[in-house]
């Protein structure tokens, strides 16, 4: 009889998990509060609102595709011995202060930070760090809830809602991530380090392999494996890093799930992050993670579906399109992505730029405005393109 996996959360990560996991003969049940969530339409069983209990009961294993899912469903699945990975990872991820404190307390390198409880602490952080990033601890993602203070005059940007996390502003050379898969017996495989490029705080495109030296890449991999072992993790884990201009490798945050920066594995690896997650949580052998060809993804953010758009993207050699089927188009919303492969890094860079040009033209911030301009959508910037540095 086929194994049944219950997925809490019905977004695009769940959708791709289902599409990649079906070749293993697995059946999937999905719960989401939104009846139009993309993964619901691809599932073998739809559960909406308060119906999560039936999903847990009918599943052999329960997993999640993002962190902010029904806590009662998580609790029940864990008590039944079905939850993979465990609930500790969700508790850590739901509050940036708790996450950063856990990393520090377990010896992992992070940017220097302070916990802010009042206005005096805001001023103290500015005096200590000079340049500071203040972060709302809960509900902030993709650049939302972050406030950059580069001098004393910027202090009034910081919300007077506490607590906040204050981090020293890092002089970044590269932003990279490590996607790994860990089995229940502790066997770990890592995908090649991925290089990530953001626009207005949200991931625009990723490249694998990252353009960093071997020592830096090995350092990032070792830290990611160390974190997975510390968490006794089962499944796919993503760890995001800052590589500073003086060569430090600092953990920015982690994601206890498949991740946007790992979408390149759909074409660039023999076994994708999505299939490997299903393999790991079901106790199947995990598959190879080696890079087959230089690979990339470009996110399609806030872009409405169009036959001509898809056709023009697919005319670029080495591309494929994943459209998520979301019903509403909003600025910054992840509507789909483009996978890209090439024979070498120069060719990959050219193809990334071609895709960016087709998807966004020269008005990228029409689709990806800053958070504070989402409503007015009046920001315009030139297209961000890849360079060889």
UniProtKB/TrEMBL annotation:
HAMAP family in the cross-refs: PurK
Give the reaction(s) catalysed.
5-amino-1-(5-phospho-beta-D-ribosyl)imidazole + hydrogencarbonate + ATP = 5-carboxyamino-1-(5-phospho-D-ribosyl)imidazole + ADP + phosphate + 2 H(+)
Family to which this protein belongs: Belongs to the PurK/PurT family.
UniProt name for this protein: N5-carboxyaminoimidazole ribonucleotide synthase
- Look up the record and name the pathway of this protein: Purine metabolism; IMP biosynthesis via de novo pathway; 5-amino-1-(5-phospho-D-ribosyl)imidazole-4-carboxylate from 5-amino-1-(5-phospho-D-ribosyl)imidazole (N5-CAIR route): step 1/2
Query: Per its UniProt record, what InterPro entries does this chain match?
Result: ATP-grasp (IPR011761), ATP-grasp_carboxylate-amine (IPR003135), ATP_grasp_subdomain_1 (IPR013815), D-isomer_DH_CS1 (IPR029752), PreATP-grasp_dom_sf (IPR016185), PurK (IPR005875), PurK_C (IPR040686), PurT/PurK_preATP-grasp (IPR054350)
What range does the record give for the signal peptide? none
Which residues does the UniProt record annotate as the domain ATP-grasp?
A: 100-282
Q: Which SUPFAM superfamilies match?
A: Glutathione synthetase ATP-binding domain-like (SSF56059), PreATP-grasp domain (SSF52440), Rudiment single hybrid motif (SSF51246)
Q: Could you tell me the gene encoding this protein? A: purK
Determine the domain of life of the protein's source: Archaea
Q: Which PANTHER family match?
A: PHOSPHORIBOSYLAMINOIMIDAZOLE CARBOXYLASE, PURINE BIOSYNTHESIS PROTEIN 6/7, PUR6/7
Molecular-function annotations in GO = 5-(carboxyamino)imidazole ribonucleotide synthase activity; ATP binding; metal ion binding; phosphoribosylaminoimidazole carboxylase activity
Q: Relate the protein's function as given in its record.
A: Catalyzes the ATP-dependent conversion of 5-aminoimidazole ribonucleotide (AIR) and HCO(3)- to N5-carboxyaminoimidazole ribonucleotide (N5-CAIR). Catalyzes the ATP-dependent conversion of 5-aminoimidazole ribonucleotide (AIR) and HCO(3)(-) to N5-carboxyaminoimidazole ribonucleotide (N5-CAIR).
Its EC number(s): 6.3.4.18
PROSITE patterns hit by this protein? ATP_GRASP, D_2_HYDROXYACID_DH_1
Per UniProt, which keywords does this protein have? Answer: ATP-binding, Ligase, Nucleotide-binding, Purine biosynthesis
> For ATP, which residues are the binding ones?
96, 135, 140-146, 167-170, 175, 198, 252-253
GO terms in the biological process aspect are: 'de novo' IMP biosynthetic process
Q: How does it assemble?
A: Homodimer.
């Amino acid at each position: 009889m086929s194994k049944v996996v219950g997925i809490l959360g019905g977004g695009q990560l769940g959708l791709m998990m289902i599409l990649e996991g079906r070749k293993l003969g697995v059946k999937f049940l999905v719960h989401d509060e939104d009846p139009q969530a993309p993964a619901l339409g691809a599932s073998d069983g739809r559960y909406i609102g308060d119906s999560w209990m039936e999903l847990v009961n009918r599943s052999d294993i329960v997993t999640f595709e993002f962190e902010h899912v029904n806590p009662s469903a998580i609790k029940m699945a864990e008590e039944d011995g079905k939850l993979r990975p465990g609930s500790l990872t969700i508790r850590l991820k739901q509050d940036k202060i708790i996450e950063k404190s856990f990393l520090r307390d377990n010896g992992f390198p992070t940017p220097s930070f302070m916990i802010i409880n009042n206005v005096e602490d805001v001023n103290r952080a500015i005096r200590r760090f000079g340049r500071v990033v203040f972060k709302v601890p809960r509900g902030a993602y993709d650049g939302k809830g972050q406030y950059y203070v580069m001098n004393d005059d910027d202090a009034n940007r910081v919300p007077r809602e506490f607590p906040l996390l204050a981090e020293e502003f890092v002089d970044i050379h590269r932003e990279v991530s490590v996607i790994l898969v860990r089995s229940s017996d502790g066997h770990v495989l890592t995908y090649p380090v991925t290089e990530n490029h953001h626009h207005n705080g949200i991931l625009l495109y990723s490249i694998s392999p990252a353009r960093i030296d071997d020592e830096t890449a090995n350092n990032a991999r070792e830290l990611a494996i160390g974190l997975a072992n510390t968490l006794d993790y089962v499944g796919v884990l993503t760890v995001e890093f800052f590589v500073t201009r003086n060569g430090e490798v600092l953990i920015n945050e982690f994601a206890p799930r498949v991740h946007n920066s790992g979408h390149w594995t759909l074409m660039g690896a023999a076994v994708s992050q999505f299939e490997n997650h299903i393999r790991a949580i079901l106790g199947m052998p995990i598959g190879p993670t080696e890079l087959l060809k230089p690979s990339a993804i470009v996110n399609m953010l806030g872009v409405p579906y169009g036959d001509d758009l898809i056709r023009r993207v697919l005319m670029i050699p080495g591309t494929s399109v994943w459209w998520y089927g979301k019903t509403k188009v909003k600025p910054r919303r992840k509507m789909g992505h483009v996978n890209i492969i090439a024979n070498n890094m120069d060719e990959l860079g050219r193809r990334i730029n071609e895709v960016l040009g087709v998807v966004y033209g020269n008005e990228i911030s029409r689709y990806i405005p800053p958070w504070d301009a989402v409503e007015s959508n009046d920001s315009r910037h030139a297209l961000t393109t890849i360079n060889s540095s």
